[in-house]
Design brief:
eight-stranded parallel β-barrel, 8 helices, alpha/beta
Length: 219
């Protein structure tokens, strides 16, 4: 069974609390927080995600899954560590120096969070291999990061399959998360590829019955 991390990127601000409550009742596993700085990706969601994160900390005990699409990784790790999320994921492409990547992994862990590294569709899966022993999750972007509502890029699932086999061969228990274009039409191929955690936004939010949708996505 795949776990569901519900992206709240496109949740209506006027009905945010109600939406979050309905998602929790629908038995999602995580709230996915898409933090975009307007630099690493075009869109800027910093204020919106700060507001949503603080609201969630007041109304739910479900774990928060923070996805940093930012250039200044260190600053945002420190900022989001304060809300005590379950996991903080940053992009491999945001940091050019490998030693700095290891520093950021340590920084997340020192703040008692699980750590993930995300890769864009164009990044080869082998680029992540050397960091696998030190992280909890690899987030494979199945669309270009930066906006919701895109169609899943089928080629990205090939990377998931390759990664799954690599983890098995090297006896690593790293989780694979996939984010982008996942809905009831694509969830079966995502599961078949070997994804452990599926990030789903509009694939839930645009349906009438969240609980039925989440149940179908999981099973």
């Amino acid at each position: 069974m795949v776990e569901i991390s519900a992206s709240i990127l496109d949740a209506n601000e006027d009905e945010a609390a109600k939406t979050f409550y309905n998602l929790e009742v629908a038995k999602i596993d995580y709230f996915h927080i898409d933090v975009m700085d307007g630099k690493f990706v075009e869109k800027n969601t910093v204020d919106k995600m700060n507001k949503y994160s603080n609201l969630l900390k007041q109304i739910t005990t479900l774990p928060l899954d923070v996805h940093l699409m930012v250039e200044d990784v260190e600053t945002y790790i420190k900022l989001y560590s304060a809300i005590e999320p379950n996991m903080i994921t940053f992009h491999l492409e945001a940091i050019k120096d490998k030693n700095k990547i290891h520093e950021m992994i340590k920084l997340v862990k020192d703040n008692n969070c699980k750590v993930g590294i995300a890769i864009k569709p164009a990044t080869e899966i082998k680029e992540i291999y050397e960091f696998l022993p030190y992280i909890n999750t690899v987030l494979v972007m199945t669309v270009e990061p930066g906006k919701g509502g895109q169609a899943l890029i089928p080629e990205t699932l090939r990377k998931v399959r390759i990664l799954k086999e690599y983890l098995k061969q090297h006896n690593l228990d790293t989780y694979i998360e996939a984010d982008g274009g996942i809905n009831l039409d694509t969830i079966d191929e995502v599961k078949e590829a070997g994804v452990d955690i599926a990030v789903v936004g509009n694939g839930i939010l645009n349906t009438e019955n969240y609980k039925a949708t989440v149940s179908k996505l999981k099973n």
